[in-house]
Each structure stands twice: as C-alpha cells, then as structure tokens.
Design goal:
Length: 290
C-alpha cells in the first residue's frame, strides 16, 4: 500500500499541474471573454460548487468566521484581479508564472512588515536571488518592465499578504468552507468590476464555454479540493516544496501549447527566481520527513 506521505506528494504534484493547466485554460477563454468577467464567472461558480459540497462546514459558521473569510476573500480578489489583467496582456505565460510564484518568497517578508514576524536568513538570501532574477527579466528589453509583469508582481505581493492573513485570522474556519467563501467573494468582486468597466461584445461560442467550464471544474474546484486533501495528509513542508513546480509546469505547457520560447536572458531570470523558491524552502527540504 502506498505510504501516506507519498500519496500526499503525488496529489500535490497533480495540484501544481492543474494550476499550470489553469493558465492555459484561462488564456484560451480570454479569446472570447473579457478578463474581469471571465475571472468573475469562473470563481463565483467554483465558489458555489465548493460551498455546496462543503455545506455541512458552511452552515454552522459564526458571524466572526464569515467576516474573516470574506475579508481574506477580498484580499484574494485583489490579487486575482491583478493576475487576470496581467494574463490578458502577457506575451509569455511562462515568464508571468515565475513572477507570480514570487509570492512564496514574499510570504515571510510581508509577515515581517505587517505582523513583526522575524524571517530567517534564507528568506533574505532568497529575496536577493529573486530580485536578481526579476532584474534579468526586466533587462531583456533594456531596463523595461512589461505592464503584464507589473500586474503579476502586484499579484504576488497581494497573495503573500493573503497567505499571512489566512494563517493568522482564519485558522478556526474549516478549510472547505473557507475556500468556498473566498472563491465566491473573488467572483463577486470581479463581476462588479467587470460590470463597471467591460462590455461583452459577442455571444460566447461552445468552445469558449468549454474553456470556461474547464477553468471552473478542473483548474479551480478540483485543484483546490485536491490541495486541501493533500495538505491534510502531510506536513506543510511537503506542499511548500512541491508547489514551487507550478511555474515550471506552466513554462513547459506554454512551450508545448502556445509555442512560446525564452531567450537566454529570460531563462537565466526564471532560473534565478526558481532558485530563490528552493532557497526559501531549503530548511524544509533538508529536514523533509520520510
């Protein structure tokens, strides 16, 4: 029988692949849907689905738990609005995925800035290496940070704040209920923003609806369900280390799916960012339980 830790690792590996697939599904869906409208429909329907499946956790929640879940959902919503705007303007999804993954490095830094948590030395080293990686990417076009890269970087910072708030304020909320509420809040925020700024010019084709459903069912609902299940089976160090593979999967899929290529300088920049993720998790990697 497969060891529990190995099952958790394989599930988390699948989660990173599904997350990378979400980049592809979203890229295809944006060919027919406005970005904010797409992310709104995707997250609201996913939130309703997860919430319905976990209704036994949602129903008994107290008012304070609802406030905390909704507040952290608003922060997550700001991050996802930045992410989808970045995706809508991106010419290279692989590069964007590596920039977005900086949220892992920034979690302890945000914790230090806002909650007076002392980061380890490895965190500062990882941040330095990540900065060098971002510098390499920006120098690709002569010290110029593309608008999409700026959105992805903003999303990374806000996601790091979201992680800290989740860890600090939402520990008492059942994970499925918390996930469903947060996804729903993101969807409502995005739909409101879409209603104020976007127009839906043409009806969506069957292909567009297919990409939307794939995003809702596979890249959002199934991904978060499996992530919650895997995190409940093993230590956080397992998940943290394996989650660093998401940008790698995304870059590989972008090359296979979209025929993307990277210049040598971009490869160096992305490699430095990936190295910063490993440095940030180095202690867990060395002391990984069997």
């Amino acid at each position: 029988m497969m060891a529990k830790n190995l099952q958790a690792d394989l599930l988390m590996l699948l989660v990173t692949f599904l997350a990378a697939m979400g980049w592809m599904f979203s890229h295809e869906a944006l060919n027919e849907m406005p970005p904010l409208g797409f992310i709104g429909v995707r997250f609201l329907l996913a939130g309703l689905l997860v919430g319905a499946l976990g209704w036994h956790q949602v129903r008994p929640l107290h008012r304070q738990a609802w406030r905390r879940a909704c507040a952290t959902g608003v922060v997550m919503g700001l991050a996802m609005l930045c992410w989808i705007l970045g995706l809508s303007k991106a010419t290279q999804l692989g590069v964007g995925a590596f920039i977005s993954s900086l949220s892992v490095v920034l979690v302890p830094v945000v914790g230090w800035l806002f909650f007076r948590q002392t980061p380890s030395t490895s965190t500062w080293i990882a941040l330095l290496v990540a900065t060098l990686g971002l510098g390499s990417l920006s120098l690709e076009t002569g010290l110029n940070f593309a608008p999409s890269d700026g959105y992805f970087a903003a999303a990374a910072v806000i996601l790091a704040l979201h992680f800290n708030l989740n860890s600090r304020y939402a520990l008492s909320i059942p994970p499925v209920a918390l996930t469903g509420i947060q996804l729903g809040v993101v969807g409502l925020m995005a739909l409101l923003a879409s209603g104020l700024t976007e127009t839906w010019a043409v009806p969506i084709s069957g292909v567009g609806i297919g990409w939307l459903l794939a995003s809702i069912l596979i890249a959002t609902s199934l991904r978060f369900f499996l992530q919650i299940k895997a995190q409940g089976m093993a230590s956080a160090s397992h998940a943290a280390i394996i989650m660093t593979l998401e940008p790698v999967w995304t870059a590989v899929l972008a090359m296979l799916w979209l025929d993307e290529t990277m210049s040598l300088q971009q490869l160096i920049g992305c490699s430095l960012i990936f190295l910063s993720l490993l440095i940030n998790r180095w202690r867990w990697l060395l002391h990984r339980p069997g």
